[in-house]
Amino acid sequence: MKHRRTQVQPLVSEPTQTLKEIDQEIARLKERAATIVTAEKSGVITRIKEAISYYGITAAELGFRGARESVASVKSEKLAKRRVQAATGANPLETEAAKPLKKPRSGAGVIKYKDDAGNAWSGFGPKPRWFTEALAGGKTPEDLKA
Fold first, then answer.
1. How many folded domains does the chain comprise?
2. DSSP H or E run through 109
3. d(CA 96, CA 81)
4. Comparing C-alpha atoms, which of 104, 124, 101 is closest to residue 112?
5. What is the mean pLDDT of the chain?
6. H-run or E-run covering 114
7. What value does the CA radius of gyration of the chain take, rounded to a whole number of Å?
8. What pLDDT digit, counting tens, does each position of 5-19 carry?
9. Is residue 114 a contact partner of residue 146, using CB atoms and an 8 Å limit?
10. Residue 43 counted as domain residue
11. Rounded to an integer, what is the distance from CA 77 to the centroid of its chain?
12. Are 142 and 110 in the same domain?
């Protein structure tokens, strides 16, 4: 049996559009999408306003906070809730305020060691070069205490 040579068809066909034409189509579709969003948004806003007025929903119930309310006041509000729960004996595992507040590290940023050249270190993080060199030179950590 003889082998026939057949012509191999390319798997990928040649693009019928140029990159410029595709970019123009993308821009046209983005504009069309923007107009659809604008048209749908007004209807959604109307339905939301109707539901808010019907149910008497407040901004606080939706989780919106005023621009004047600071992060510190939110944290103090959570802390006050926890104190009330502790005083009333409420189960903190069943409340939203049960999440622990982050405590700042005690001593972070306080200078514990310094040398005569004015170098300083709080004792947190890796030892600085000047500290290890001073220890290698015969000084003790007590000698470098601030």
1. 3
2. none
3. 10
4. 124
5. 79
6. strand 113-114
7. 34
8. 666 666 666 667 899
9. yes
10. yes
11. 22
12. yes
